[in-house]
Design a protein that fits this description.
The structure holds two protein chains of two kinds.
Chain A: H1 9-17, H2 23-36, E1 43-46, H3 48-64, E2 74-78, H4 105-112, E3 116-121, H5 157-164, E4 170-175, H6 181-187, E5 190-193, E6 213-218, H7 221-231, E7 261-265, H8 275-290, E8 294-298, H9 306-321, H10 338-350, H11 353-366, H12 371-395, E9 398-402, H13 414-418, H14 420-424, H15 431-436, E10 440-447, E11 453-460, H16 465-479
Chain B: H1 5-14, H2 24-38, H3 73-77, E1 83-84, E2 87-88
Antiparallel strand pairs in B: 1-2
Classes of the chains: A alpha/beta, B mainly alpha.
């Protein structure tokens, strides 16, 4: 018999509707995989009993014909989404005992559509990291690792690894500077960060509010479209969520891309770019060309300033957002003499190294005397970066770039750990998209000589996920990547 | 702009974080490395450029000033590390 966890969501839904398989069978198969694959450290909390109870409910609904769009589909949830009654930690000691009294809007949408949750997935502490090594629960192991244990990418490392190792049908992720796309690329799976405002941020533990956006990580492009249909939409509880209509993203799957203009940003091909990545980039462009697209060269002149801009703005917003962890209303508390000492003791004990580093930098760039030189300057450069995209999109409909300049590296890699900037540089192809608020998808294109997956990134215009979905589907078909 | 030990101490207090005396030098050096890197932004001419605060172009929604939720003190206090008589407990702040 075939392994049910090999099925995509679209295939599973077909079989569930035809009653060829039952939700309980399907959920049990995923739970089995979770147990066999716990060496990857993808889950930090599991909710099998809850999931099985939901699967039984789904069984009834299929029997009486009241099944909803995602009925009985087993998902993993990044542990940054508040889930009512289920511990939500952001993988930080400071709130490792936090049990939300409410549900995030995105996960509520998924539940309302009949999805069930297998548990909460590992991430970098407060989503601050690119390798999942800053998690207070330890790093996620990339399922593609050979002899050496490799990182799964970050911050949604647990989500990407769980999807790759078939420990869930798909997972939720969040992306502030590449946190959906980079781990998706490292683990050979597909993930989309939609346009800023597409998905409500309500109930997602905040990192950098002007950049954070939720999205799905799944086995393929079609499954991403199915999930985004459910996750997206206006929410009165998030003032930055958009009222722009949400189309049926699945309706763009299989549409042809004849005459579509695909832009190749020249600044994304610096001297010394990994040859294999560069070759796969050319191959991807050829696949799209063969499908009828036209390849055009475009320029994004401020690309080299995107990382420094990001590493001013994101820590600044983080330092404000993380001020709430004071040991008074929730989370862990370390007593002290007086209020200041209580705050200081609580925060010094509760936060990890990278989080403290970013709070300090953020506080500095926002402090009196430095605000104009750093924060305001970065916001101005952010405008120029967005203008670059506006100009580029006058010449093309979509951009094609690699997702990451490197392949997955070893857990504990010295070069990455000795200088935080080395780690930050891995986000070079992903951060601009967040600064400009654009949608972007990463999908696997092939394997390196070391047998590790590479991802390609498609960047769309704001609220034009549809062009991403139709282009990504053609690229997926041409690449013919074999999932794990 | 390189920072000195006093600045690191001041920023740490503003952040309500403690930097142990033996970590002060290391923290300062790391801080300066990151600052030197982000100072590349100084090369960019941003005269007459408006800062981009948000990419969201839609105007904010107004609603009636009605009570939409309430009477949830139990839920609000559910995760409090210390609570008494329906209140959060903090150290004494007035003499």
């Amino acid at each position: 018999m075939t392994d049910l966890t090999d099925l995509t969501i679209s295939e599973s839904l077909k079989k569930l509707k035809a009653k060829e398989i039952s939700p309980v069978e399907l959920t049990t198969a995923y739970i089995e995989k979770m147990k066999n694959n716990d060496k990857y450290n993808a889950y930090v909390t599991t909710t099998e009993d809850l999931a099985l109870a939901q699967a039984k409910e789904a069984e009834k609904r299929y029997a009486n014909g009241t099944n909803r769009p995602l009925e009985g589909i087993a998902l993993g949830i990044k542990d940054l989404f508040c889930t009512k009654g289920v511990r939500t930690t952001a993988c930080s000691h400071i709130i490792d005992n936090f049990v939300p009294q409410y549900e995030s809007t995105v996960t509520q949408h998924l539940l309302d559509d009949g999805a069930l949750f297998l548990g909460k997935l590992n991430l970098d502490e407060f989503a601050m990291g690119g390798s999942n090594e800053t998690s207070c629960f330890g790093p996620v192991v990339n399922p593609w690792s050979k002899e050496t244990k490799l990182v799964a990418g970050g911050s949604s490392g647990g989500s990407a690894a769980a999807v790759a190792a078939k420990m869930c049908a798909a997972a939720t992720g969040t992306d502030t500077g590449g946190s959906i796309r980079e781990p998706a690329a490292f683990c050979g799976v597909t993930g989309i960060k939609p346009t800023y405002g597409r998905c409500s941020r309500y109930g997602i533990v905040a990192f950098a509010s002007s950049l954070d956006q939720a999205g799905p990580i799944a086995k393929d492009v079609t499954d991403c479209a199915i999930l985004l249909n459910s996750m997206a939409g206006y929410d009165a509880k998030d003032s930055t969520s958009s009222k722009v209509d949400v189309p049926d993203f699945t309706s763009f799957i299989g549409k042809d891309i004849k005459g579509l203009k695909v832009g190749i940003p020249q600044e994304y091909r610096p001297d010394g770019l990994n040859k294999e990545i560069s070759d796969y980039w050319d191959k991807a462009a050829q696949i799209l060309k063969d499908a009828g697209a036209e390849i055009v060269s475009v320029s994004l002149p401020h690309t080299k300033y995107a990382l420094p801009t990001y590493y001013v703005i994101a820590p600044a917003e983080a330092s404000s957002n993380l001020a709430r962890y004071d040991g008074v209303r929730y989370g862990n508390r370390k007593e002290g003499n007086g209020l200041d000492e209580l705050y200081i003791n609580t925060r010094t004990e509760g936060f990890g190294k990278e989080v403290k580093r970013r709070i300090l930098i953020g506080t500095y760039v926002l402090s009196a005397g430095y605000y104009d030189a750093y924060y305001l300057k970065a916001q101005k450069v952010r405008r120029l970066i967005k203008n670059d995209f506006d100009e580029a999109f006058k010449k093309c409909d979509i951009l094609l770039t690699p997702t990451s300049p490197i392949e997955p590296f070893a857990i504990g890699d010295k070069k990455m750990l000795e200088n935080p900037i080395n780690m930050y540089l891995n986000d070079v192809f992903t951060v601009s998209v967040n600064l400009a608020g654009l949608p972007a998808m990463s999908l696997p294109i092939g394997l390196s000589q070391n047998g590790l997956p590479f991802g390609m990134q498609l960047i769309g215009k704001a609220f034009d996920e549809e062009t991403i979905f139709k282009t990504a589907y053609q690229l997926e078909r041409g690449a013919n990547f074999v999932r794990m | 702009m390189a920072v000195d030990n006093d600045t690191v101490r001041r920023i740490a207090f503003l952040s309500r974080l403690k930097v142990e005396p033996d970590k002060l030098e290391e923290t300062k050096q790391e801080f300066n490395k990151i600052l030197a890197w982000v100072e590349e932004l100084g090369e960019v001419n941003t005269d007459n450029v408006e800062p981009l605060v948000s990419v969201n172009n839609e105007s904010l929604t107004l609603r009636e000033d009605d009570v939409t939720a309430g009477h949830m003190s139990e839920a609000v206090l559910a995760n409090a590390p210390a609570k008494e008589f329906g209140y959060f407990v903090v150290p004494k702040v007035v003499e």
